[in-house]
Amino acid sequence: MKPGDLDLCDIANYNDGVPLEYLDMLRREDPVHWHPETDGKGFWAITKHADLVHISKHPKLFSSWLGGTNLPDRPEEDLAGMRAMLLNMDPPQHVKYRRLVQRGFTPRMVKELEPRIRQEARGVVDRVATKGECDFVQDLASELPLILICELMGVPVEDRHKIFDWSNKLIGFDDPEFQHSASDGKAAAMELWMYANAIAQQKKANPDDTLISKLINGSVDGEQLTEMEFNNFAVLLSVAGNETTRTVTTHGMRLLCEHPDQRDKLVQNLDRLLPTAVEEFVRYNPPVIHFRRTATEDTEIRGQRISAGDKVVMFYPAANRDEEVFENPTQFDVARDPNPHVGFGIGEHYCLGANLARMTLECIFREILTRIPDIQLAGPVKRLRGNFVDGIKEMRVSFTPET
Ligand code: HEM
Known about the structure:
Elements: H1 20-29, E1 32-35, E2 43-46, H2 49-56, E3 62-63, H3 76-82, H4 93-101, H5 107-126, E4 133-135, H6 136-141, H7 143-153, H8 160-171, H9 182-205, H10 211-217, H11 227-258, H12 260-268, H13 270-284, E5 290-295, E6 299-301, E7 304-306, E8 311-315, H14 316-319, H15 354-371, E9 376-377, E10 382-383, E11 392-394, E12 396-398
Parallel strand pairs: 2-8
Antiparallel strand pairs: 1-2, 3-5, 4-12, 5-8, 6-7, 9-12, 10-11
Helix pairs in contact: 5-7, 5-15, 7-11, 8-9, 8-11, 9-10, 9-11, 11-15, 12-13, 13-15
The protein binds protoporphyrin IX containing FE.
Protoporphyrin IX containing FE binds next to helix 11 and helix 15.
């Protein structure tokens, strides 16, 4: 295989998972690779860890705002809406907005949430532990991230399934099971947006100590979130926080099943190795396959000329397997330390929910690995169609039921 042999935009090339061998080859042979597109002007495919870091840390040179952060070029009318989201902003607007919302995600806030997350994790495992088998995605991986997003947003329990459906439609744009057309995705975003708006109104009228209430009613240096900014943030949270953590939970379990030696080591040293194992799940199988930037002026990456307006696409799974940074990168090692992976991004847009995601993953794995530790795959996994999130839709598992 040589550079140019595989179309990274063709989702058929992701049917069996991310084409890692091809990305590994690109990283070694053509790390700043020009990739033509059938329905676009082409892009630079970035596969080296150092280049991903450089691009992510220079947001003025590599914009998230100009062309958004998704690979496909969007029409200007779509971009206008997307640019209202934190993910697609540039400094100085990004800095200001992020300061307003990050109050909800400080290590202290996450620590305060821990007992609640632990309790919910226990509840999730309670519901399946005596059954002896289940669909891991639906029954074990989906629940906790969803509960948390709803908790953060102040969504009542009876409405949780709405958030679940909307976020599936928003993220599964290439999967016919979740979304039948692009307009389905837009409709879901609109419904979620309006739903968030209704909650915000309610919290404005009756402030309480939920995150949503603090975000909507509080201010930083006299600045307050507008309703519009808040609604957009709610849409981003539902997408960014749900599918990602669900995917890492599922792949993490799959990896442990496929590497019994690593799983035994983890089960026997749970307290010590759980934090490093969680980092390794995110390194080995990052849920987000790529994010895009657009060059704002002529520049160079690794000596390659990049012109203003060029599209630059960073491949996270490739950067996380860079042999210049990781020893034996293809080896899944639950004790890997240090582990400077970029699965949560880096720099300006570093994942706002990273601490929350880590805590969520630790809580659910602690429950699973102490209560149903012999959990095994009971059939092939069913993958989400697409080349943006490396998702799994169904993963049947079996285990000795808890008595
Ligand atoms: C294991 C789970 C997760 C992974 C791997 C992940 C990954 C990422 C990545 C790679 C970015 C960087 C985007 C960029 O550079 O353009 C990002 C940003 C973001 N993530 Fe996460 N994420 C996870 C969980 C969460 C959770 C649980 C939340 C919220 C509850 C969240 C909220 C966000 C937000 C709001 C941003 C945008 C930050 C900004 O633009 O400043 N993520 N995430």
